[in-house]
Amino acid sequence: MSVLPGGEAPHSFEFVAAPTDLAPYLNSLYIWRLGDEQLDDVLPAYSGQMVVFAKGVGRMQFDDEVAETSDAFFLAPLCQARNFSVNGPAVLFGASINFRGWAALSGLSVHDYHDCFLQPGTVLEDGTAQTLSGLAQRWSAGEVDDAALLDAMCDIIRRGLSRLPEQHLTVIDKTLEWLSSSFKPELDDLYASLPYSKRQAQRLVAQFFGQSPVRLVRRYRAVRAATLLSMPQLPELIEAEIREAFYDQAHLIKEIRFFTGRTPKRLMPGAGSSINEMLGPDGYSSVNLFGSGKSEQLGNDPLDDF
Length: 306
Description:
Blueprint: E1 2-3, E2 10-16, E3 26-34, E4 38-43, E5 48-62, E6 65-68, E7 72-75, E8 82-97, H1 99-106, E9 117-118, H2 120-123, H3 126-133, H4 135-140, H5 146-160, H6 166-180, H7 187-193, H8 198-209, H9 213-229, H10 236-244, H11 249-260, H12 274-279, H13 294-297
Antiparallel strand pairs: 1-2, 2-3, 3-8, 4-8, 5-6, 5-7, 5-8, 7-9
Helix pairs in contact: 3-5, 6-8, 9-11
């Protein structure tokens, strides 16, 4: 259980590994619980989520619009950090969907659908959408327990997945490899790895990731830096590399705040924020947030990071 600074609401995250057959499409499953309080926080630029809000109610700020949660919904991939508020007690069940999974499950362009709540029927066929929408009530009635609800969510995902064309998988996977290669990967390296013209590659990257390659570099550089800075006993060599990836300290703070909603100080170990838990390796799997060679420097087996 974590307690936020200043006596804010206690909360807990429980991450559950995705079933083997869904591992290519999901970062993880999770259960989030909040005590009998109100929590105001910021969600980082994050992948798409399938959510069952079994208890409580939440709201999220999208530019000039405040959207309210329903019993079940999808959170489209976020391209920047977003403020949210939850009135407890609350229990939320989620599936964190990576970019392969979002494309295969929704078929929606992230360029057109991002930073918003989507009703189940926008993503799923009618029957499956209704099943998802009824899970919160079944949990409240005691018909399913926590594990059974997560299993039901996995079954819904299995039924909704479509096979992606090999060319599209290539774009997604090569882009993820490129993002994982460095704090500042070269654009030409990405274009050279894809069987498309530069303009076509830019269009497809925006379709699957919601942003241009240039902006994706900014996003994952900031998220990777935030992840590392939130770790205890960060080696000085890696900390120096993080700072070299930005123009100066002001640039580092500005970018991390825009994409994670936190300053480096608020991301320090012991800060007590749910953001720190979401930025950890349990919350991600598609992109190696530690970058090439970082696992060895941190004393980890790179195959165990995710």
